[in-house]
Amino acid sequence: MRVLVTGGAGFIGSHSVEALLAEGHEPVVIDDLSTGHARNLTPGVRLIRASILDARALAEAIAGCETVLHLAAIVSVPLSLERPLDCHAVNATGSLQVLEAAHRAGVRRVVQASSAAVYGEVEPPIGEFAPLVPLSPYGLQKRMAEEYGRLYGLHHGLEVISLRYFNVYGPRQDPRSPYSGVLSRFADALARGEPTVIFGDGQQTRDFVFVGDVARANLLALTAPGSFAGEAFNLGAGRAISVLEAHAAIRAAVARESDTARPGGAPAHLPLRHEPARSGDIRHSLARVDAARERLGWQARVPFGEGISRTVHHAIGTPVDPASGTRD
Ligand code: UD2
Fold it and tell me: What is the CA 222 to chain-centroid distance, rounded?
């Protein structure tokens, strides 16, 4: 199956491209490389370097594709508050462009990345039928994309499945932006022996799901037999972990890993600072994951400890790019 992967050179995208290749599919990637990297892609994968807002490039990329995995987005809650128009353009209008291009190209199914942010502050565990009252432009934009997807099903027979990711982590998540996922920031800083910051008391919890599990869910959603038009599924591990617990797990993994890499070389001093809680942060987030298990046959497999080891291994093993200061 030929699959267009928007944002395919990014964090979740590149893992999804690998999962598609491993099953013998043919991914085609459109990515403007705003946060992704061409080096994330397996050599030989076709990359069209363009934004999803470029209708002509999108039409060219989508031609001949049976399905679309739409991941391209500006993925940040705080950034969507600072730059709502830019984020709206990519996350809402861009998603609409992808749906329109898919409809015109006769695509059968679109699987699109949504987010736990569509729920806002809801009593966990959060099921798919919880009220959708997003607290940020980002959550609203993802919700709009879901709703557009439902309408394309209703009016054009395009099957659109929305996957509501919870907190995805793992190798290749960019750690160097202030908006990066907390675990990539901790792994990168602790691997360098740099200070880490916990916003608030650290007792806030998240449902951390490993990127390999998310890539497998994307693949299942693209290929599952049956009809799922307009449906949305939570993707989480179904376990609440506090930021403090995660910090301790990463610190331990860094000490273990540094010792293996350089015996006796574990950083001696790993300072931890507390700062005031980030405005707009939700306190607790935990997914109910029964729907994905029952309908798609998916559940997270990688235990948190193992996911952390792989993330830390990558952070320690990847040289820092001297030009950008970023890791692979
Ligand atoms: C995640 C997603 C976001 C959206 C949202 C849905 C990421 C990067 N963001 O936002 O796109 O889907 O979930 O609810 O996956 N923190 C620290 N120290 C740091 C960085 C963060 O203590 O250096 C805290 C932060 O204040 C928050 C928690 O860690 O309480 C998680 O922060 P995050 O930015 O990784 O993810 P979140 O849950 O805000």
Answer: 16
Count how many residues are written for the chain.
328
Between the CA of 243 and the centroid of ligand 1 the distance, in Å, is 9
Does 327 reside within a domain?
no
The catalytic site residues sit at 138
What atom of ligand 1 comes closest to residue 182's alpha carbon?
A: 35
What are 173-180's contacts with CB under 8 Å, separation 24+?
Answer: 173/11, 173/211, 173/311, 174/11, 174/35, 174/326, 175/315, 175/326, 175/327, 176/325, 176/326, 176/327, 177/35, 178/78, 179/75, 179/76, 179/77, 179/78, 179/79
- The pLDDT tens digits for 79-93 are 999 999 999 999 999
Q: How many domains does the chain have?
A: 1
**From the CA atom positions of the chain, what is the Rg in Å?**
19
Question: What is the chain's mean pLDDT, rounded?
Answer: 93
Which pTM was predicted? 0.95
CATH number at residue 285: 3.40.50.720
State the Cα–Cα distance between residues 183 and 200, nearest whole angstrom: 16
pLDDT tens-digit series, residues 18-60: 999 999 999 999 999 999 999 999 999 999 999 999 999 999 9
